[in-house]
Specification:
By secondary structure, this protein is an alpha/beta fold. The chain is about 30% helix and about 20% strand.
Length: about 625
């Protein structure tokens, strides 16, 4: 029968000393095996590479039991060691030996290799790297705000001016949208606004990268619809607005643009009527309410469907003035209806997709044919941000036969529609795609002289980072800081190697792109994975940019959700937070800035900051401890 006698305190302390000493030896031994990686780091990043190696050595063990025992002695539980691994172990070991009544600190100096117990050295490095990559620290918060620019920012300088006034610290330009000329105008507007406000704001260019998407779908009929707004009784409360023009490319706000062929043949007057028989055989008449240089704005109290080439008549005071024809209308976007159990063929050939017909399953193409040589039977394929899930039942170099096992709504609805240009994720497939395509290389050459940071999209392995660094060196653009976007399963699994590769260039940053990442690893794992990314980056003294759907509802609708507010508060553990564009983006910047300012007083990375509570039951004594 095992002894029930308590373990003497001195024996318990000796056991703890042995455990911590063993950890420390493993850390130093592992450092020796990774000396080449540390030596390849840039001179000002070697301490960071060394600390990351130390952290990886420690995290090979389950430390939870040791942590509880150290806490029981009133010592550090190692739970905040990320930025200062070896100094933390040294300090804990020194404290344990002191508790055990062993040699004085001077006698330990040789054993400790100089007794490195500077527990703030790593924090200083992280602060220094953040300052270099993300610019000066804002006045009342430590976290920077990055804002994605909409297309209109290229031609409307006030978009950037207002964002800067509200607190933007980094302007993000997404190279998947717009063109080089538009990006240059955005940068010009930023410099002008920053000079006007006396502010500093950096520019980050986000390379598009090899995004997998569904190809086109066979277009539907060329038809347009207008519809008045009705109340619950079916009464019209707002007339439909229809803009007829032969030259305009956009309609007035709230109106449907209908092209005329070839152009307006004669002037119309306010009060004239346009009459037609629509695609359903319904007679419709519209009243001209406004004349513009390019067209006629009309109103109608009935729903109408019109098709290309349809005939209509312009009438005045009951008399026909002219017979007109509609121009070519845009084809309606089609979609593939998919149900659980259906088969979908993902094709290499860029043939427009079609819905299932008879015994033929639905098919749609993939924009990156290189993946067909890598995927295997049994691999999962996620479509449209994970809304659809398929499993490959058969595969060859031209076609992947997917069985659909998940659709939005599950079996409760009669299926869901998959459209063109939707993302494809292959979480089980480790395929080798060039991370820098022709477009990325061309874009990089254009914006390198104008930017401060470059974001590498869909990075997967060390070679991807090295390819970007080589290209920056070739362009003479080594001044650009590198941001690694962690948005797939492979990037997360290879993150330590990615960080070491980036540290060869200079201090780097990591963007946690939670949208694609959640799709690949599973939404249920996102919380733990983003936590591990924060730990690893802090160990490498690499600043983190928190991205994807931060206050997205607020930016789109003007009202945040409760979950978004909590998410924004948690984002304060990163060094920067990215907001996406939206009609209420100025309000989102202001709101986020307020949240980050308040959380700055409560939290520093994983450490809670115990400011004075403002609740009942406290003594009310003001001030700080001596």
């Amino acid at each position: 029968m095992p002894s029930t006698k308590p373990v003497p305190a001195e024996h318990h302390l000796q056991a703890l000393i042995r455990q911590v000493e063993c950890l420390r030896r493993e850390v130093l031994d592992y450092e020796q095996t990774r000396r080449a990686d540390i030596g390849r780091a840039a001179p000002n990043c070697r301490a960071s590479a060394r600390n990351l190696i130390h952290y990886l050595a420690v995290r090979q063990h389950d430390l939870r039991g040791l942590q509880r025992q150290l806490s029981g002695q009133g010592l550090s539980s190692l739970g905040r060691m990320e930025a200062n691994v070896l100094p933390t172990l040294n300090a804990v070991l020194l404290a344990l030996r002191s508790l055990a009544g062993e040699a004085a600190p001077g006698g330990l100096s040789q054993d400790f290799g100089g007794l490195d117990t500077d527990l703030e050295a790593g924090d200083r490095l992280l602060h220094r790297h953040t300052l270099r990559l993300l610019g000066p620290r804002p006045a009342r918060r430590s976290v920077r705000i990055m804002v994605t620019m909409p297309s209109e920012a290229a031609d409307d300088p006030t978009v950037i001016l207002h964002a800067l006034e509200r607190g933007m610290d980094v302007m993000r330009v997404n190279c998947a949208h717009d063109d080089a000329a538009a990006w240059s105008r955005m940068v010009t507007h930023l410099h002008s606004a920053a000079a006007q406000l006396g502010r500093t704001c950096l520019t980050e260019f986000d390379l598009a990268g090899p995004k997998l998407r569904t190809g086109p779908v066979t277009p539907g009929p060329e038809v347009l619809k207008w519809k008045p707004q009705r109340n619950q009784l079916g009464q019209v409360i707002t007339l439909a607005r229809v803009y007829f023009s032969g030259t305009a490319t956009a309609a007035p706000a709230g109106a449907v643009l209908v092209p005329l062929m070839p152009a307006l043949p004669l002037p119309a007057q306010i009060g004239d009527e346009l009459r037609l028989t629509d695609a359903r055989g319904r007679k419709r008449q519209l009243k001209v309410t406004q004349i513009t240089p390019d067209g006629w704005l009309c109103t109608c109290d009935r729903t109408g469907y019109v098709t290309s080439g349809m005939r209509l008549t312009l009438r005045r005071e009951g008399k026909a003035l002219a017979h007109l024809h509609l121009g070519t209308l845009p084809a309606r976007a089609q979609a593939l209806l998919l149900r659980i159990g259906d088969h979908l063929l993902l094709t290499r050939a860029p043939t427009p997709g079609q819905a299932a017909a008879g015994d033929q399953p639905a098919h749609i193409s993939c924009t990156l044919p290189q993946v067909f040589s890598t995927v295997k039977q049994g691999h999962r394929v996620l479509l449209d941000d994970g809304k659809f899930e398929g499993v490959i039942r058969a595969a060859n170099l031209d076609v992947l036969d997917l069985e659909i096992v998940q659709v939005p709504g599950g079996t409760k609805r009669g299926g869901a529609k998959l459209r063109a240009e939707k993302g494809i994720n292959l979480p089980d497939t480790d395929f080798d795609l060039p991370v820098l395509g022709e477009k990325d290389l061309a874009d990089l050459a254009v914006f390198a002289p104008q930017g401060d940071l470059v974001s590498l999209s869909f990075v997967r392995r060390r070679q991807d980072v090295e390819a970007l660094i080589r290209e920056l060196q070739r362009l003479g653009a080594s001044h650009l800081s590198v941001v690694l976007k962690i948005e797939n399963k492979q990037a997360f699994e290879h993150l330590p190697e990615l960080l070491l590769a980036a540290l060869r260039h200079a201090p780097a940053a990591v963007m946690v792109a939670r949208g694609d990442l959640a799709v690949e690893i599973g939404f249920e794992r996102l919380a733990e994975v983003q936590e591990e990314i924060l730990w690893l980056c802090e160990a490498a003294h690499v600043p983190v940019i928190w991205a994807t759907q931060v206050l997205d509802t607020l930016a789109q609708t003007g009202e945040p959700t409760r979950a978004e507010v909590t998410d924004a508060a948690f984002a304060g553990r990163a060094e920067a937070v990215m907001l996406n564009k939206g009609p209420y983006i100025d309000e989102a910047i202001t709101f986020l800035g307020g949240v980050l300012e308040r959380m700055h007083e409560h939290q520093d990375k994983k450490s809670s900051l115990l400011r004075k509570l403002h609740v009942s039951g406290t003594t009310g004594n003001a001030g700080v401890l001596p």
